[in-house]
Amino acid sequence: MFQFYSTSTVIYLGAALAEIAGCFTFWAWLRQDKSGWWLIPGLFALALFAYLLTRIDVTAAGRAYAAYGGLYIATSLIWLWLAEGIQPNVWDLVGAGLATSGALVILVGTQFSR
Questions:
Q1: Distance between CA 86 and CA 84 in Å, rounded?
Q2: pLDDT of res. 58
Q3: Exposed, middle or buried: residue 114 (CB in 10 Å: 0-12, 13-18, 19+)?
Q4: Burial (Cβ within 10 Å: 0-12, 13-18, ≥19) of residue 112
Q5: Model confidence over 9-66: pLDDT tens digits?
Q6: What pTM, to 2 d.p., does this model score?
Q7: Which domain holds residue 74?
Q8: CB–CB of 15/49 below 8 Å?
Q9: Cα–Cα distance between 50 and 22 in angstroms, integer?
Q10: pLDDT at position 64, please?
Q11: Residue 75: DSSP 8-state
């Protein structure tokens, strides 16, 4: 059971980083006047994101996406801080905590309902 959580966590974090990086390339291109060449690695990152989510060991895609959502929020705030230099505020952290808790309930609950 521990192996499931550690493997899933690594996959979810990898997916979140890939999605955020891929989406950020579009943000940089459209909002920060970066070159359109930024989109090429962004598209690869988004493809990696989609691939990684298929590696989650659950029976339904919607459940994988729902659990992923909470971890994505927390990872987005880490990106905000490390990549964009903006420190998350207390409301960001409370919201991320709630979302991550919800994701954990989905993941743990799935294991008990098998």
A1: 6
A2: 81
A3: exposed
A4: exposed
A5: 899 999 999 999 999 999 999 999 999 999 999 999 999 999 999 998 888 888 888 8
A6: 0.81
A7: 2-112
A8: yes
A9: 11
A10: 85
A11: H
